[in-house]
Every structure is written in C-alpha cells, then in structure tokens.
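Hi W., the adenosine monophosphate complex you wanted:
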Amino acid sequence: MFLIKTTKDLEIILNKQRSENRKIGFVATMGALHNGHVSLLERSKVENDTTICSIFVNPRQFNDKNDLLNYPRPIEKDILMLEEAGCDALFLPDPDEIYPENYLDAPIDLGKLESVLEGAMRPGHFKGVAMVVKRLFECVQPNKAYFGQKDFQQTLVVKELVKQFDMPIEIVVNDILREDNGLAMSSRNIRLKNEQQQNAGFIYTALKNLNENVFKMPFSQAIEIATNEILQHEGTQIEYLEIVDTENLEKMEVLDKNRKAVVLIVVNYFGVRLLDNLIIGE
Ligand code: AMP
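Structure:
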C-alpha cells in the first residue's frame, strides 16, 4: 500500500493510474477504523481498479473542541487494517495540505440540510464536512466515492455538494455495519465501557420495533413508544428521534407510498453520542 502525505505525491500516483485508464474508488475517513469502514473499502475494490482511503481528522467539522482533542487516532492499527483489506493507497495529509494558506474556498450553501437534526445539534458541522469532502474530491478526483448510510444526513450533504459544483463523481451509499447485538459500528463506540457496548443494542431493537409500529399507528405514536423504550435504559438521553423524508429530511406523519421514510436517531448513552437510522415502511 502506498502511504501518501502530500497532494503533490497524490497527484503523481493518481495521474499514472488515470493514464492507464484505471477507475479510482475513494473512501474518506477520520481513522480509528472498524469493519464499517472496511465494508466501504471492500465495495470500492469490487467496483474499481484502484482504491484509495484517506484518514484526516478534520478540525473544521468539530464544533466541540474536547470531541476533537479526544477523537481516537490509532494510526498504526489503521494502517495494518487497510493493508489487510487490500487498500491500494492511504492519503494521510497534515491540515496544512488540506487547508493551505492561499486556498480560497468557494461558499457552499447547504440550505435546510445543515440546519435540521444533526445540523441543529452541531452548528457548523456540515459546512465543515462539505468543505473537507470538496477539498478531498479535488485532490483525489475519484470516479466513485463511498459513504456509509450510518451518517445519513452526511450522504445528502455530499450529494448536494457534487451537484452544486458539478463534480463528475458517483456517490455510493453503503449499508450500516452493526455489531452482533445491533449496535451500529462507530469509532466512538470504544468510549463506552464493555458492558455498555454489550447493552447498546437496544437502540437498533427500538428502531426495528418502530418499523413494525408505523404500519399500525401514526408516526407520532410510534415515536413515543420508541422513546419510552429507549429511556428505560440507564444513562440514556435522546437528542433527536424523527421520521423524515429520505430526499429532503422533511418531517413525515404517516406512511406515504410516494415518499420513502427514514427514522433518524441520536442517543446520548453515558455521554457518548450514538447515531443510527433505519429506512422504514418497506
Ligand atoms: P468516519 O471515519 O466516522 O468519518 O466515517 C467514514 C465513513 O465510514 C463515512 O462515510 C461513514 O458513514 C462510514 N461509516 C461509519 N460507520 C459505519 C458503519 N457502521 N457502517 C458502514 N459505514 C460506516
């Protein structure tokens, strides 16, 4: 696996790949890799000739300084995992490479996408995400880029980004990889104690129950039942639990055969933010 630290070296290596007409697949991460990340790499390997992964803990998408400081950075373990997964190249830039002094960023207007749900909880977060993804896309210029449904709202932001800047990149959204108990894999899960990790499957259980209830009752009632189910567990607070349209995140009240619905949730469990979601009503 190539380990690339500068945009210059990246350009040299990728130009060679492009001159040989090789299709490039790209997976952007913040490291602390787990099998969820690996599932994106595996899909990219099947669908492209060269797969490149980036690890960059983007300071501009953290509205909470402590969260940024405490973000896990096990880089040696990450490199081993990438090699094992058969990743062709790792782009591991310093912040100066991504945000050089003379870099002028075009403003990105994400509209409602950045002000609701996760955007409302983390002001400025999606502007930061859009900015770094745009910059990474400019550096890598992949044919396809792979993102997890786990960060549902982020996938809409990235699709909006490529649309606004007319970038010829196909955005592929991959399923959520879960632990055996249903807990969505996340780099932040290691902040939970073992016992808490083992218990945390109740979030997915509540989402699956909700998916059965929406066929029998209005969404508000199904949400109320799921809320009570989750809050029964010690150490839980719900930041949001909403059923929205998968295209525009507008709130939905009942099933509608012309619209696809997703339930989006963040549970704060013993101080750790756990994001999850499930497409419902199918
Ligand atoms: P992160 O390192 O958390 O920024 O995540 C990098 C990419 O991996 C994003 O596209 C995430 O949505 C995706 N991802 C994170 N967790 C999972 C998971 N459990 N299953 C599938 N993809 C994931």
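Strands lie at 2-4, 24-29, 50-55, 89-91, 144-148, 170-174, 236-245, 261-269, 272-280.

W.
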